[in-house]
Every structure is written in C-alpha cells, then in structure tokens.
Amino acid sequence: MATGKNPLFDTATTLGKILLFLGVSAICGVLVAGLLVPAAAVTGSSASGSIKFFDTLPAELKVDPPSQSTKILAADGSVIANLYLENRTRVSLDDMSPHIKNAVIAIEDSRFYEHGGVDTTGIMRALVSTARGNKQGASTITQQYVNNVINSSLEAEGKGDEVLLNGVNKGVGDKLREMKLAIALEKKFTKEEILEGYLNIVFFNRDAYGIEAASRLFFSTTAKKLTLPQAALLAGVVNSPSFYDPITNPENAKNRRDLVLKAMYTQGKIKQADYEAAVATPVTTKVTQPRQGCAYSPTSPYFCDYVLHLLLNNPAYGADAKERERKVFRGGLTIKTTLEPAAQKAAQAQVDAAAGANPDKWGAALVSVEPGTGKITNMAQNTSWLPAKGKFDTQLNFNVDKYDEKGNDINGLGGAQPGSTMKPFTFAQWLDEGKSMNTVVDGSVRKYPLNFQWRNSCGTTTGAYNSAEEGLGAAPDLQNADPDYYKPMTVLRGLYNSINTVTFASAAQLDFCGIQKIVDAVGIHNGLDNSPVNMSVVANLLGSTQTSPLTMASAFATFANDGRYCAPIAITSVTDATGAQLPAQATNCRDALKPEVARGVNYALQEVLNRGSGSLIQPRISTRTNFPIAAKTGTSNNNGSTWVVGHTTGLATAAWFGDPLTNQKRAGQNITINGNFYTGIDGYMIAGPMFSQFMAQIAPSHGTEPFPEPPSNLLYEAAPYQPPSNNNSNNNSDSNNSDTKAPSTESATPKEPAPSAPPEKKK
Q: Cα–Cα distance between 703 and 427 in angstroms, integer?
C-alpha cells in the first residue's frame, strides 16, 4: 500500500525526529512549552538533559521468534500432542485474511503506512484529548510490536515479573525507549514484516497468542478464513482481551467489534453494504479449546510423556532444566516419533479389555519394539492420566524404568519381577557353551545348600534353596508349580514347560559369568535404579529383580534379530521453527548373542506356544496366526506380576498384568478381574490373551518370516541321562517325589501329543 508521508512529521526525517522528541517530551512533562516554538529555539538544561537521555537509549531491538507451540507426531505424521507455554502457531501475512490486516490497522493505527514508527499526529491528538479529561493512547502498531517483543523475551528468560504493561508499570523512560526502538525497527523491517510479526505475537487470550491460535480458539477456523465480522471482533479483542472476550463478555465484544467495523468503513477499507451486513451479524463463537500437554493426548499420553522426558533430560536441548523446558515448550519444535497409530490403537484395546475397569487398581501394560531398529511402535496401559469416573488414574508409566541411565527421572513405575521370562537367558548360556538343548538334566533336585559349588569365573554365586538351612539364610526347597515335573527331562522340555528345577539343574552345569554377560548384553537391568541385574544371586535365574516391559521387549527382540541387541528409541527427528534439525535418537545396535544361540532360543520359545506353558493362552496364537512366533510366560512367587514376552522376526512385544501400586506386594490370588475370579493369576491367563490378540492383529504388518534353524549340534539327541556323581548328589531327590526314573531322551522334533502344561511360578 503506497501512501505519501507528511515531510514535517515523518519520523524518518531529521526534522520529524526532532518534532517527535519534542512531542514525547511534552508527554513526559519535560518540554511542554517547547512544542509551541521552533525546534532550534529549544534551550535550557531541562531540554538538553532530555535530549541527552534520549540519545543514550538503545536503538537496536533483537527480534527473536516468539514462543511457538511444539508438536509431537506419530510415525505417520498425525499429532500425538501439542506442548506450549504460549499457544501460538506462526503464519505468514499471506496466510491471514485481508480483513484482519485492515481491521487491526483501522482500530489500532490508522496511519500505520504513513509514520516512521511513532505517530506524532497521534501523540498530539492524545495530548489534547487527555487534557480534556479523555485519556487516549497513542502507541503505534510498531510500538506495540516492540513492547510485545520485549515482553516475550522476558517471559522466555523466566522474567515474567519484569513484563511492562501500558498504564500499569511503564515509566517515562520505558516509553521513550519503546519509541526509539520503534523508529529503529522501521528502518530495519518493512511495514508488512512488522504487521506480520505483530499479528503473530499479540495476546488474545491465555490460550491464544497470535492470530492463528485466536482464530482456532474462538471460531475453530484459520486466520486465512476469517470473515469480516470475525476479523473485526478479534481486532477489537486486542485492546482488552478480558473485557472484550467474546466467550465471557459477548455484549462488550460486539460493541467493540462494531466500533472496529465503523473505523474500517470511515477509512474506506470496506463498503457500506459490507459494513451494514457485518454490524447486523450476531456475535457467535465456535470454541475449540486447545489441549496442552501429554495429559490430553487422545491416543498415547504415557508414550508422549516418555518422549517429553527424553527431551527434557537431554543436555543437547539446554544446559539446565529451565533452558531445556524453554526450548521444548517455546521453541515451536516438530518431534517425529516411532509410534504407529494402528499398533497403539490395538495395544490400547487389549489393555483396556484385560483390565480397563477394576476397582482394585490392577495394572495392565503392553509395549512393542522393532527388532533391528529398536523403534517403539506402541506403549499402552489400562489407566487414565487425568482423574475420570470409574477409571484407575495414574501418571506413572507402567512400561518404563523409574530413571534413565544417567539417573534422571522418567516417570516410570520401574518395572516388576519378570519371573520365568528370565529363563531363556540361562538357556541361551547353555547353548552358548555348546550344549544340546536335548540334553537331559535332573529336574528332581530341589536342594541347593549354602555350600553348593556353583561355577562362576568372574565372581561368587550366592543364595541357597534348602529347607534344612532356612535358619542360616537359605530359602525353602526349590519347587515347581506342578508335582509331576520333579524328574529328569531335557533342557528344552524344562524351558517350554517352565520348570524351575530344570533351570537350576542347567545352571548347575554352567558358568554364571556367562549368564551375566548375556543378560547385560541384551540390555536387562534393574528398572528401579538402572543397575545391572546380578545373576550371581541364584534367585535372579527365576526373575527376582524388577525389570520394565520395555526392557524385556527389547531383550527378546535380540533373539528375533539373530543375536543383535538394539536399544529402544522413540524419537526419529526433531526440527525447530526454522526447519533446522536438532538431536534425535538413532538406531544403536550391538552384537549380544551368537546367531546360532539366538536361533536355538527361538526354536525353544516356539515350543512354549506350541506345547508348553504358552499353549494354555486363549486364543492360542500358535494355531490361530499360522506364522512363526516365539514367547515365554512368567509369573512371580505371589502371582502379583504376570507376563508374556515374545516375538516374530519383525516385532517383539511384552505384555504385563500385575500390581502397580507402590510396594508391589499384593498377591494376585483370590481376586476378581472383569468379572472373572482367579485363585491365582498366571502369565497365560490375562497377559497371554493381551499378547496373542495384539500380535495376531499387528505382527503380520512387520514381517513374520520363519526363524532361521539352529545348527544341528544344538538339536541332536543327547546321550541318555546319567545321575551326577559328585559331592552334591545327596541333594538330587526329594523324599516326597515318587517320579525319579529317567525318561528316554526326548526328540528334537517330538511327535508325541502335546503334554498338559502346568501354570508356572517363579519359586
């Protein structure tokens, strides 16, 4: 818009600046008389001092981008959540309705295109009006923009108490500084750039900063689609956002809107017919209340919160917590994550179906990772983030650790006892030492006294199971869940039926140092403090140390990935408001197991579902899916923590059901869940269906190729069982165990009917 400037009052000229200063000084009560005489006649110490003061004021304004909303996106680009301290989405002037530009100029600064940052005509008019008792402002849009930029910078620096407001805490010096900066700003930026900046920064409502956010809040539209009445109304709100709020004060808003429309009409910005039609339009709003933060994520509040903690704990986003918070909540970041909406929806449906409404607050969780990349595809639990009637609400994430590896809080439960889902790692060491999975061991042994000679090349193994030594610190004799399984059997059969005594009989022939190295290599750690799980404590063979579902899913993904462990990741890219790339997470993998060992474990874990403890899962995933899948069930001593963890070649999933309350001491016995009474919950009962139905639905989209076969030396028929002859042989049988006769060696590919698999417990 090209307009001529009055050369006398143009603040871009020397004379104009002098006259401007005289006018401002008059406002300040310093050079009132000087307004009536030529500039050259201005003399005296008062005028001289004011000019000197004006010259010392800063003339440069650093215009940083205003605070903008951050978006957390799923892998397909859909929005998971918006984060902000000021709800703002920056848009270009071309993406704003012409009506809003004209309306704001008409009511806030009609000579916007004529002045050089400060409107001297307006100042004089305001002086006269104020002298007559009608207080009137004279700030131009450029001055208002300067004020908003300064205040925005203060807010971003955590100095909100220093924010300057017209008529409240703004002194003479502040006003002069604002004027000088406005003049300097006009030299640096075009009118269009200033108007665009102003409309993007100005405050409309505590939930709407800038015209785009205001358009969405009040009218559920965009700035580009604002109608004339809507634009005029929003232009009017700027003057006093609370008094002219169209939601709470619609009558005030209409009066102000009509005043804006009249100004637009008298200034020739709209025609009479448009003016009359707009004035006749009632004030109506269509509110879209912004939902800020992970708590309002409609699909994945806990995954969102996990992502947020990863960013807020990352020093790459700032030297301290406050700086990182400003970066994340004010920086207009776009955070692309690994979450797959279809997988998340399916996972949420399963945890809700398992225990969505239970007054006793039992927890259900389900998380999956992609072997080979570590990408977390879903993270769901059966709770609501915010209190809701009939719902179990908590802000703790059941799927993740309490702290990250550097000790930063990540708002996690810290896991639960994994029970027998730890047994595959002892089995992996068995294979790593070159032993056949069809070797028969003595599963009748229940006593492992305090003096038992475990093998451990890098430490000392502690713990004992011997009722006769309970007074000396030993636990009672080791037990299985079913009395028919205290007998010799192959290591393979012991694993797929989850027999505790077979796991111990296997470990008695292994180097515990090797078990430790495997557990460490696949990323298993204590979910409460991130410390290693000490496998030299024999109880940890059966999963006594709390670990998180995400940790277990990632560990089992190692089997699916031919022995390569990939750390779990949730963030694939982060860009700031300018499009610059910021640090994200990258796939980070390492060799953890020999490929042949991983293949042997996969072979055995398929048998868990075909004819072992996992065959009791309903619906039976092994027959229902018609694709290769491996898994292991797990249950803690008191049934308070139950699991199924497993994988295909393309997806690994951990399903958990148990006690998520503070001490995790409740027994999962004699309880009712979803109308079903359980004398004791085992892994296959609730976690099992969650796992099977989720994997049946989602796993095919990730790849379900056959697992590679293990080498023959890990499968061949071992020699018939021979009872060991060593100083521990007196512990090989229990006096109440009537079945101590060794069976014939079990074939690697047995053809006998599937045995009845007992529910298993960690004992």
A: 26
Task: Report how far residue 410's alpha carbon sits from residue 307's, in angstroms, rounded to the nearest whole number.
Answer: 9
Whether 31 shows a pLDDT value over 50: the answer reads: no
Q: Tens of pLDDT along 378-427?
A: 999 999 999 888 889 999 999 999 999 999 999 999 999 999 999 999 99
DSSP letter at 36 equals G
Residue 507: phi and psi, rounded to 5, are -60, -30
d(Cα 189, Cα 192) in Å, to the nearest integer?
Answer: 8
From-to residues of CATH 3.40.710.10 in the chain: 419-568+589-731
CA distance 493 to 746: 8
Which CATH class name applies to 14-56+87-279? mainly alpha
What is the average pLDDT across 519-526? 98
CATH 1.10.3810.10 positions along the chain are: 14-56+87-279
501 CB-contact burial (10 Å; exposed 0-12 / middle 13-18 / buried 19+): buried
Give the C-alpha separation, 353 to 54, whole Å: 71
Mean pLDDT confidence for 678-694: 97
Rounded Cα distance, 114 and 6, in Å: 8
Q: What DSSP assignment string belongs to 420-477?
A: GGGHHHHHHHHHHTT--TT-EEETT---B-TT---B-TTS--B--B-GGGGGGTPBSP
Q: What is the pLDDT of residues 1-24, one digit of tens each?
A: 444 444 444 555 555 544 545 544
Fold of 419-568+589-731: Beta-lactamase (3.40.710)
722-746: pLDDT as tens digits: 665 544 443 433 333 222 222 322 3
pTM for the full model?
A: 0.81
Give me 349's structure tokens: 């449906």
